Amino acid sequence: METLVAAASLIAVQLSGMVVMFGLMRAAPHERCTRYWAASAALAGIGVLLIMLNNGAYRPAILVLGNNFLICGVVLQWCGIRVFFRKTKMIAGWAIGGAFFLLFGLLVLQGAGVMQRSVLSSATILLLLTMSGIELWRSQPRTGGTARTIALGGCVLLCASYTFRLGALLSGSSSGLSTSTALPGLAMLYIIPTFSSLLLWSGLLLLYFERIVGTHQHQATHDELTGLLNRRALTIDGERALSLAQRLHAPLTVAFIDIDHFKDINDSFGHEAGDRVLVEVANIFRQTCRNVDLVGRYGGEEFCFVFPGIDRDGAVAVASRLVQTVRMHDFRLGRPVTASIGLAVTLPEAAQRDWHALLREADAQLYKAKHAGRNRYCIDQPRGEVLSLPQQMAS
């Protein structure tokens, strides 16, 4: 009776995992990992059920079906983990599954005893679980990640359970057999696997939800085309950066950058070429700016920057470098692409300005840069004069 209850609990966990993953698969049919995981839980549950019903007897058809369903379920779980982490090659898992099918079939045809069959199935499951654990360990950062820790913990416990079971079988102990009613056997075969499977499925489910939340959060705060911050996120982070700079009595620079004659690029080369220019310009900005700088697409061909800790001299250096880098880049259009920049700087010793005032000043300086001939920068000055890129540098 104890064996029946323990086995039923393990089957219930597997089938529950199947139901949850099947629901996710229906909700997001484009996600291949949930398909693998739903099929994995279903096959593993059916496999455990057939093995339990067989109860160690020599019934070739049930033996082959039950054990191969179980192995196939573990292979599909490994495949789902690889798909989740954007990996496509799965030949190793299926090769192991195919080898098990052939070897187990030979053992059944030769009339091998339950001990030999259990050794083969336990060793194969242990190998596949180890492969799943390695995928979880390598594919995520080693620090942080509650979901990864839960899934990896469940995988490690399952590996430990099958390691002890394999050791018991190789030593000739009957506690490693599916017919065992002793407490150590029940623990190795059903109790620990039930708890471990629950941890593993919970961890995989949390990993999936973490990705969904992360994806939606990224889509809500980043521009789809360039991958830079969008206007809303830039405003929120920019106001936060300005508030921090004022508390620390540190300088901060805000800049507007506009691609010159961008409408002509779209009209002459098409919108696809225009999109390519925006993406390449965004890549230039990422490579030129520091990690602490905020870079976003403000709208159309206009970008906005926030440079914490940058005073006027630093702003001039950064602006000059950005203008020249864009001008020197080969956009494969047969003509140069240039940019104009307007900068506003807030200094600790100057009167404090809010975020919107800095934006208005940077926008006004951008207008001056365009009016002065484009392909240059303009920056606000203490007495109101304009500092512009010399014409010999702009040419």
UniProtKB/TrEMBL annotation:
This is diguanylate cyclase. It comes from the Bacteria. Its EC number is 2.7.7.65. GO terms for biological process: cell adhesion involved in single-species biofilm formation; negative regulation of bacterial-type flagellum-dependent cell motility. One of its GO terms (cellular component) is plasma membrane. Keywords: Membrane, Transmembrane, Transmembrane helix. GO terms for molecular function: diguanylate cyclase activity. Residues 250-382 form the GGDEF domain. It comes from Noviherbaspirillum humi. InterPro entries: Diguanylate_Cyclase, GGDEF_dom, Nucleotide_cyclase, Rev_trsase/Diguanyl_cyclase. NCBIfam families: GGDEF. The chain crosses the membrane at residues 6-24, 36-54, 60-79, 91-112, 118-137, 149-168, 188-209. SMART domains: GGDEF. It catalyses: 2 GTP = 3',3'-c-di-GMP + 2 diphosphate.
